[in-house]
Structures are given as C-alpha cells and as structure tokens.
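Researcher: Next entry in the queue.
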Amino acid sequence: MIDIVRDGAAKVGGLGILASYLGIRHQAFYSWKRVPAERVLDFERVTGISRHLQRPDLYGARLAGPASSQAGTGEGAAP
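Model: Structure for this entry, 79 residues:
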C-alpha cells in the first residue's frame, strides 16, 4: 500500500473508514500505485492531504506558502 493512503487512513481513523468515505472497498487501496485521478479531490476533501502531494504529476508541486494541508504528512512539508 502506498504511503499517502496510510497517512490518509491515519487521519480519518482507519483504512475501512477511508474506503467508506470514498465509496470503495478497502481492498482497492492495495492495487493503487498512486491515487487515481478520479479520486484525488475526494481524497483531499476527506483527509486534508493536498492534491499537490497526492499527484504532483497532475497538479504540480505545491508552491511555498502555508503548509496547513501538508502538516503531519511527512511528505513535502515546508521547512
């Protein structure tokens, strides 16, 4: 399972809860190599993890500024 899913699950209280919020089965997460494009915005809404961290290939790297949605993710947090 990818780290971003682990981080998201930790934020919402577990993998099953995250899957429920996204309307998928928790087993689907194990096939993800990255967050699917059609799930990015929902994943961001539910977990607070920036779309820029999830899919920089689609949304670009987050510009310097407030790191509110990056805090605690362990990825790309502003120094």
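Model: The chain is about 45% helix and 0% strand.
Researcher: Noted, moving on.
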